[in-house]
Amino acid sequence: MTSGNPTPAGSQSPPATSENTKTGTDDVPAKRRGARPTPLPATYKRHLAEYAVALEEVPLSAGTRRTYASRVRVYLAWLAKRPAAVRSSLWPIPQRCGHDDQVSADSLEAASRFDVAYVDADGVERSVKLEELSRVKLEAARPVRSFPSYAGQRNYPGWYWSATMGRLVGFESWVERDHLIAIDFDPVVTAVASQPFWLRWSVDGRPRRHAPDFFVRVAGGGVLVLDSRPLDRIGESDREAFQATQQACDLLGWRYAVWGHDEWGGGGQPAVVGGLPASAVHG
């Protein structure tokens, strides 16, 4: 999740072995070499098997396919240990996501404070008014940001093979990666794209922009725009960006959410269901 002034728009071609394979995270413990795999519930086993079958059709090396399958298995094992209320806050995604709607005449003035930039399937950056965004097939768009990797980097970007999309989808952190896996395994999801567009606006004459982490299309045409950010790391500029994104999605009739990590709000309660929590917006 990023906002502000990131690297230039565009997409980079990921190498076949681009999955980040470092071990150990704050939310997913490292697996000890030689340890026996944690048993999975039957439902999760079935989903993992379906993912493995999809991977067999992918032009990747056998070692890379094993890495993807192993990462997904570790995540599903972790998710299976969470309380039911926590799991349901993340997966499956509620089908009550908003649907594409034309911006009403009464809302055009509010929509006029925003404009949007995205990169089409041919790699061309295009700008549209907010009210035109619902007509753009964002699931076919390229990321507006690249996913660089360099020495000393504090976050862990990489690429995940999405069975839903039949191609690699980028992520900027392991929190995003876990959310991407959950999205990919959700039966109501029909498409997902990362870093789908720049939302641009100004505050007291100062230009601002924000690229949400994911655009999710669900069965029936509903849309979820998602940011992945641990709630204890949301700063003032993030609150401003999230509020603006919430307003823009409301005008489009889309659902917007911010997902945290680990217990997704703690105490078995989801961090966000149906919108930005008051704690994230107001501090």
Describe this structure as you would to a colleague.
- This protein has one domain (2-12, 88-282): Trna Endonuclease, Chain: A, domain 1 (3-Layer(aba) Sandwich), CATH 3.40.1350.10.
- The protein is 28% helix and 21% strand.
- 39% of the residues are buried.
- With 283 residues, the protein is α+β, with helices and mostly antiparallel strands.
- α1 (42-56) runs antiparallel to α2.
- It has a five-stranded antiparallel β-sheet with strand order 1-9-8-3-4, with helices on one face. Strands 2, 7, 10, 11 and 12 form a five-stranded mixed β-sheet that branches. Strands 5-6 form a two-stranded antiparallel ribbon.
Give a concise summary.
With 283 residues, the protein is α+β, with helices and mostly antiparallel strands.
- Strand coverage percent: 15-25%
Q: For the CA atoms, what is the radius of gyration?
A: 19 Å
Mean pLDDT: 75
Low-confidence sequence ranges: 5-29, 94-98, 262-283
First CA to last CA: what distance? 19 Å
Provide a count of the helices: 7
